[in-house]
Design a protein that fits this description.
binds hydroxy diiron-OXO moiety
């Protein structure tokens, strides 16, 4: 059986991963409306990954004999200031998620829950990759500057393909 404290923190993470998915969906529809279909495609794919992360938590809690609770999600923003600022927001959000994954690692150790400790390592690695891929996007945006958004929008998916 899954320890109660672990079940609780994993359930909280369902909400965080689901919100991440909705946040990136909101960013995707905004960028698409602004005419950046390449960036929108990247964000739609990222939203899908976050939903997959959420499902990993749902499935793990269920497999361990716990009860995965599907929560209400806070409404994400509708508009974003600029493409640059939006990707900064993505990076900040991913850093926040990394912190929450680290909290789960710490609690698993404290509770001697080695199954959860082992399982959550996938997310530890995933967060390193996610932060690094968003940082790469921010670096490219800085390099190209606002005037070259056409090129950035055209090429962003190739950054994803090379991950
Ligand atoms: Fe973007 O991260 Fe989920 O975990």
């Amino acid at each position: 059986m899954i320890p109660k404290k672990i079940e609780k923190i994993l359930n909280e993470q369902i909400e965080k991963e689901g919100y991440s998915s909705n946040l990136y969906l909101a960013m995707a529809t905004w960028t698409d409306k602004e005419g950046y279909s390449g960036i929108a495609k990247w964000l739609f794919a990222h939203a899908e990954e976050e939903r997959m992360h959420m499902m990993k938590f749902v499935n793990f809690i269920t497999e361990r004999g716990g009860h995965a609770i599907i929560p209400a999600f806070e409404k994400p923003p509708i508009e974003f200031e600029s493409i640059n600022k939006m990707f900064q927001q993505v990076l900040e959000h991913e850093k926040y998620i990394t912190g929450t994954i680290n909290d789960i690692v710490a609690l698993a150790i404290q509770e001697n829950d080695f199954a959860t400790h082992n399982w959550i390592q996938w997310f530890v690695t995933e967060q390193i990759e996610e932060e690094s891929s968003v940082q790469t996007i921010i670096d490219k945006l800085t390099m190209l500057g606002e005037k070259n958004m056409y090129i950035f929008d055209r090429d962003i998916m190739s950054l994803r393909d090379s991950e």
